[in-house]
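Input set for joint prediction.
Command: fold jointly, output tokens.
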Amino acid sequence: MAATLLKEQKDISAFVDSIDTFLLDCDGVIWAANHVFDGVQTVLDLLRSKGKRILFVTNNSTKSRKSYLKKFQSLDIHASAEEIFGSSYAAAYYIANVLKFPKDKSVYVIGMAGVREELESEGISHIEDDGTNLHAMDEMATIKPDPRVGAVLLGFDLNINYKKYAKAFTYLHADKNCHFLATNSDLTFPAGGTVYPGTGALLAALSAPLDREPVVLGKPHQPMLDVIIAKYHLDKARTCMVGDRLDTDIEFGKTGGLKTLLVMTGVTTEEALKKSSIQPDYYIASLGNLQP
Amino acid sequence: MAATLLKEQKDISAFVDSIDTFLLDCDGVIWAANHVFDGVQTVLDLLRSKGKRILFVTNNSTKSRKSYLKKFQSLDIHASAEEIFGSSYAAAYYIANVLKFPKDKSVYVIGMAGVREELESEGISHIEDDGTNLHAMDEMATIKPDPRVGAVLLGFDLNINYKKYAKAFTYLHADKNCHFLATNSDLTFPAGGTVYPGTGALLAALSAPLDREPVVLGKPHQPMLDVIIAKYHLDKARTCMVGDRLDTDIEFGKTGGLKTLLVMTGVTTEEALKKSSIQPDYYIASLGNLQP
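tokens >
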């Protein structure tokens, strides 16, 4: 069914009344680079004043919730760390509460500060390598599986190297019971007007030689939604995913049985929306227009 | 058609008479780790004495032909650098003679000494990064495409890092005319009784975020065979690929229209051979038995 445009005041009010929780993508919805879209702060305040729960849902694994909050503060957007739900936190929550990871086990981490901080916030032991690499092929023999490792978690890592790949591979190849997790699978990320290889690219190097696929804790993969639903006990019928991308945000919400709202301030044009097989329930020019 | 076992003297002699050039895989055919199979040296000498051309065809990109020769010498196998045909050399030959790469252009290299040495042997200019990595996300902006780069060549690289990935991606993403090449696509390689992520794994991280596939200069990909045929002007009907793997060596030869001989000293068991849809023309217990 084609998406319904939210434009008339009464339609916007009726829509907002039907929703208790808004899951908001950030880039292309709240801001673009360092520009906050007009009216967004007003809408966030209005929704909160009506008792709506707001969660900022991001695939960015390099920052913890606390650290990501600084981005909001730098843009003068009111938010609290409790309203931020990143893929690193989703992974840590999943390991602690879904896997019920044994206390004597460790997670081998490929990733940056966001992953480490969120694992620590959930009290999960973790092991990682420094940036030093192997120097010769015969050092391969120095890679010995650490019996404490019960899971491998890969997030974006600017310091990825062969030693990390070889160790992560060794854990997952040698022990089929070792959990294989990734924060997200975005193949690229935007920066400086272009794109660069993202977590999904780094993940491809690890999953290609293994005959197994990771559990991915980012959009559009459902384990991230499972974690959000489990933590907040949300009523799916009264939860709306708001995003600017059809193949991640809207797909994520639709597969999960949520309501979905596409904003036209990001990557999706009206023409692309019309042509797509992925149709949100609603679309709106900007989140800033969602003023009930 | 099921493979024919070479066991009787007259069959072996008739087979050898029908072939001018033998393309020999090394690991599992000539040797296993540091053990040379019985009779192999005798067979190599016999074939040479009958005027047969021998080429050792290897996907290992970390060593140049000269450097790989040292492996033969260390195992007391008579061979010359001219008889060795590695994937790094195949890539260099392809760039020089098939692409007819302009002299004012450079190849951006992810790889080790083998790749560098073979590019130099063909007089091809190349650029690579040292092992230093990016330290912060905002250093991404320091990645500027070098206009001299007209091709990206990826081989196995123990010093792979994010900066190399980001640069290689930037060249290939920004310029669709920039050639995308890889020495081989083996997902793993054996070492110390286990396996580690191979060139194909590293390649996956680069090709996943691009909407293009590389030309691969290793078995079972045909560009490697095209290069061998072009260089030596071989008669395919009188050329035989000898290997221990059905999905690389035998597939390589069959797709290319060569005769194929499977040896049972490597990874393929008789039971696996019977079950496989890939059937070589002939099979033999060991290359050491090929005594006409």
